[in-house]
Amino acid sequence: xxxxxxxxxxxxxxxxxxxxxxxxxxxxxxxxxxxxxxxxxxxxxxxxxxxxxxxxxxxxxxxxxxxxxxxxxxxxxxxxxxxxxxxxxxxxxxxxxxxxxxxxxxxxxxxxxxxxxxxxxxxxxxxxxxxxxxxxxxxxxxxxxxxxxxxxxxxxxxxxxxxxxxxxxxxxxxxxxxxxxxxxxxxxxxxxxxxxxxxxxxxxxxxxxxxxxxxxxxxxxxxxxxxxxxxxxxxxxxxxxxxxxxxxxxxxxxxxxxxxxxxxxxxxxxxxxxxxxxxxxxxxxxxxxxxxxxxxxxxxxxxxxxxxxxxxxxxxxxxxxxxxxxxxxxxxxxxxxx
Length: 338
Ligand SMILES: NC(=O)c1ccc[n+]([C@@H]2O[C@H](COP(=O)([O-])OP(=O)(O)OC[C@H]3O[C@@H](n4cnc5c(N)ncnc54)[C@H](OP(=O)(O)O)[C@@H]3O)[C@@H](O)[C@H]2O)c1
Known about the structure:
This protein is of the alpha/beta class. It folds into two domains: 2-110 and 307-324, Rossmann fold (3-Layer(aba) Sandwich); 114-299, 3-Layer(aba) Sandwich (Rossmann fold), CATH 3.40.50.720. Helix content is 28%, strand content 15%. The chain has ten helices and twelve strands. Strands 8-7-6-9-10-11-12 form a seven-stranded parallel sheet. Strand 4 (83-86), helix 3 and strand 5 form a beta-alpha-beta unit. Helix 1 packs across helix 10 and helix 4 (114-130) crosses helix 6. Bound molecules: NADP nicotinamide-adenine-dinucleotide phosphate. NADP nicotinamide-adenine-dinucleotide phosphate is lined by residues 89-90, 114, 162-167, 184-187, 199, 224-228, 230-231, 252-254, 278-279, 302, 304-305, 338.
């Protein structure tokens, strides 16, 4: 069985997968930070594995990809591809690929170490605003010495939009940090210490209803929704107006959720206090975007939670072993787009 890897640093991924799946000698004893699981020796029924970087011509039985060109799938049109394994948590660019076959399961990375990076990012953003670092930076520019009252975590209710593999861990961790946390997802969830709201089915509430609920007293909205048709432009002028005054937006999810013009307007009119943004409608962010020069915005270049190779390769190797054993894989929902 041939595993074909399409990625700008494909050889790095190939090496990591070979170490886990083919190269018994190099995985004896566990290296720090890597899985201690030993590679499975192929049984007599399993085809031997070949793990190769995409050279633009070869065919693969399993495609391990990040943002591949349509040509990759076109080349495989008459080939029996068993699965497409996405090298990230977001499958939006893959689902937008016009040549993506509709009868092959697509699997995405589920956390795979990204939640830990994401938690650092979100905690930084919350501390920045809760402990007034934005205000102190402005005061420094004006040589102004004026301490603010400390706002404690339990006085700073936050909303976490999206309670998936990453979002659920962020919500529970922030609740453990002492923040009152309101989670929002499509279907109902139960999470430790988190008040969970959902959109569909019995008891469902819209995003605007939740974010505009004055009784929650939200200070921060953390967006971890995926990019799907249903989440596009959901953070817009109407929602910003419904939020309590002085709330902040932290967006490491997807830029497609935010109407950037409405965000700039809400910041300029002082409705929103500030924003920490990692993702944008178009990336890289255009040089002439007003967001670059908006003093209440901090911009990072889609760097909140890069995929850690070791953890991701462990998860990919597990999935490849399951494919080798002929197990049926449950992929993402094409209907819901995540
Ligand atoms: N900036 C970075 O570096 C970076 C790194 C990794 C990931 N990300 C982003 O973070 C996102 C979240 O990752 P994840 O692994 O937690 O995603 P995930 O496991 O796919 O979970 C998505 C969550 O969003 C909810 N959702 C989907 N559509 C919705 C809708 N229309 N209304 C309300 N809730 C909806 C889902 O609800 P249900 O639970 O009911 O299905 C689920 O809780 C990814 O999609 C990716 O875009 C960014």
